[in-house]
Amino acid sequence: MPDKRNWSRVVLSATFVLVGALTVQAERPIRYVPLSPDRAFQPPLLAIDSHTHLGIGTADSLAAHMQSMGLARMVVLPPMGVDFDSVMAEFGKFPDRFAVLYPPDFATFNSKSWPKDITQSVRHAKELGAAGIKLYKYFSVYLRDKDKKLVPVDDPRFDPLWKAAEKYDMPILVHAGDPERFWMPPDDATNYIEDSTWAFGNTNVPFRETILRQLENVFKRYPKVTFVGAHVGNRSEDPLQVAWLLDQCPNVYVDLSARYGELAKHSREARWLLMQYPDRILFGTDWGVSAPGGFYDGWLNDAQRFYSRVHRILWTRDANIPTPFDGNEGPILVGTHRWAVNGWEIPVDVLQTITVDTPMKVFFRNRKGN
Fold first, then answer.
1. Angle, CA 159 vertex, CA 153 and CA 165 arms, to 5°
2. How far from the centroid of its chain's Cα atoms is residue 271's Cα?
3. Residue 14 has what pLDDT?
4. Where do the H-state alpha helices sit in 32-142?
5. Structural domain of residue 97, as residue ranges?
6. Are 109 and 139 in contact (CB under 8 A)?
7. How far is it, in rounded angstroms, from Cα 69 to Cα 290?
8. 349, exposed or middle or buried, with CB in 10 Å at 0-12, 13-18, 19+?
9. What pTM was computed for the model?
10. In-domain check, residue 278
11. N or C: at which end does the chain have fewer Cβ atoms within 10 angstroms?
């Protein structure tokens, strides 16, 4: 047994280690340093990215370089309030490359003209060639009525939108709620969020589970409408709950966009989900770029680095892959994850379904050029 002097050395050393660790914690910068370097990776199959945010001025360059990013096609989600006719004119030049979703802006939601306005706008988008509808989380956590009250997702006032989607056969990619960590006290690692307005913990926004239960009510009320739950249905922390949702609602799909970091914390369950439900899951990333004045220098290298990370997670057994959206992938992306992940090595036949077949079935089924 060590003598008292040795025990003193142990205690003193431990004290220095503890103080040092606390000092590092206090002085640690927000910017995350990846645990391992990036490496270029080209997947065996060219994927369809079912969730991208692309702006005016990007179509020509992306169509030319898509293959180097490991992609065959992209589903375009323009911002709310955009001149949708202009977006369709640009991306419509490449019907074999892009499908565009229409984003309603709810400008007249509180007026008597809302039912007519939303029906006409969905019809117009369909006539222009839109492949579906994109609902941003605005409608689930920010939209308020005339009395300044948050409008529940299953409120009957949204019915004209769901009915228009059914009438014009428009699948809906819907973002409702957010990850659990957006309701937790933010820190610079586990619960890191780039934008403080995303933190709902001290607001009157209902907890995520309330919002998602309301959305499930809509899924069940409108079984003829195809819904795609963005970001793993915003249940990426609980793949088994996602499986339950898919079992309960055969008209519902989910995409993988921007939640590889959350899924990686439950990698066994996440891999099981992909293996069990490949025909209900769409490959997606949430990658985006806007270039009205032209692309910035080096954008393609940033894009290739980002997509290599995502493809590595799905295809390889690599360890400590820098997480997509860790803030070190160029100026076009926000940083929302601060950890590395291990690859899932999903079999090729499953990834054929997730990255190509299911996106084709949902968003490209009526597209010209297929």
1. 105
2. 18
3. 35
4. 59-65, 84-91, 114-128, 138-141
5. 40-363
6. no
7. 17
8. exposed
9. 0.86
10. yes
11. N
Asked if 339 and 264 touch (Cβ cutoff 8 Å), the reply is yes
- Is the per-residue pLDDT at 26 higher than 50? no
Among 156, 171, 160, 177, CA closest to 102: 171
Decide: residue 17, CB within 10 A, 0-12 exposed, 13-18 middle, 19+ buried: exposed
Give the C-alpha separation, 95 to 355, whole Å: 18
Residue 32 within a domain: no
Residue 51 falls inside a structural domain: yes
Whether 293 is in a domain gets the answer yes
Q: Please say whether the beta carbons of 175 and 137 come within 8 A.
A: yes
Q: What angle do CA 328, 334, 335 make, to 5 degrees?
A: 55
Number of domains in the chain: 1
For the chain, the C-alpha Rg in angstroms (whole number) is 22
Tell me which residue has tokens 């998602």. 212
Mean pLDDT of 153-157: 97
The domain that contains 281 carries what CATH number?
3.20.20.140
